[in-house]
Amino acid sequence: MKLNHCISPNTKVNSKWIKDLDVRPQTIRYLEENIGRTLFRINFKDIFNETNPITKKTKTSINLWDYIKLKSFFTAKETTTQTKRPLTEWKKIFTCHTSDKRLVTNIYKELAKLNNKTTNNPIQKWGEDMDRIFTTEEIQKAEKHMKKCSKSLIVREMQIKTTMRYHFTPVRMSYIRKGNSSKCWRGCGVKGTLLHCWWECKLVQPLWRTVWRTLRRLEMNLPNDPAIPFLGIYPKEPNISIQKDLCTHMFLAAQFVIAKTWKQPRCPTTDEWLSKLWYIYTIEYYSAIKNGDFTVFS
Ligand SMILES: [Zn+2]
């Protein structure tokens, strides 16, 4: 196996890649002493650009064959994009400071920053709204559900967008734009939290009842739990067999029609739901054909 050596802005001039280029040691020494020790410095000084005055000097100072090889290396697109990438805070800490002085302080500062970042975890947000704490196993299930709920990328994207955009709830919007009302946009008069807008609102509940009724008709008796449609967290040991693919399609269709009527003062209709369901089903069918996977629909 040929290992692709990793080039970062801090890769030293005398590292493996230069050995691969088979450049003379005196050329490396010249670069180190006159231009810089890292690829970043060399790229930064742009010495392989013909209009640069240092170029002429470099060209005459090092072996011409070495010059050609290095020039093609530094002007290659994949090298430039990678070497021009700015340093991360971590790399700065470990590579830019000349001594170890204050090293511990700097590391500590960076760690403290990480700790301060408010967690922007949508699943946790759902948990807060539902007033429950998910186990690690449940969180993993939910994350897997987001990634695997559909074969089609379009459907997955819609799903993630609709469920994860809790910041578009009235409560969040009134917080962002002070003065906006935090009441549900459907006009039911209740505070528009994430859970309310998707599940609890009296103008959304009829649709969910239709979904549950349909599930019951298909002999799938699921508990009335929002974690099932939104996060894919099913009861641990259901005493009935659940066709998760079918459920997922029905839930997704409901989510989409709710999202579509987000600010309208009405309940999404059963017809809207069914047509969305049909649409998802069609998309899934074609993605399955494209992926050569017919098992779902056989
Ligand atoms: Zn409402």
What do these coordinates show?
It comes from Erinaceus europaeus. With 298 residues, the chain is mainly α. The protein folds into two domains: 16-85, no CATH class; 139-297, no CATH class. The chain is 59% helix and 0% strand. It has helices at residues 16-21, 25-34, 39-45, 53-61, 64-75, 77-83, 89-95, 103-116, 122-130, 136-148, 153-164, 170-176, 194-200, 205-217, 227-231, 244-260, 270-291. The two termini are 41 Å apart. The model is unreliable at 1-6 (pLDDT under 50). Zinc ion binds at residues 184, 186, 188, 190, 196, 201, 203.
Radius of gyration: 29 Å
Mean of residue pLDDT?
Answer: 77
**Number of DSSP helical runs:** 17
Task: Give me the secondary-structure category.
Answer: mainly alpha
Order of SSEs: HHHHHHHHHHHHHHHHH
Q: What is the tally of beta strands?
A: 0
Percent range for β-strand residues: under 5%
What is the helix fraction of residues, given as a range? 55-70%
- How many discrete structural domains? 2
Shape field: elongated
Low-confidence runs:
1-6
**Biggest sheet details:** none
Bound ligand species: zinc ion
End-to-end Cα distance, whole Å, is: 41 Å
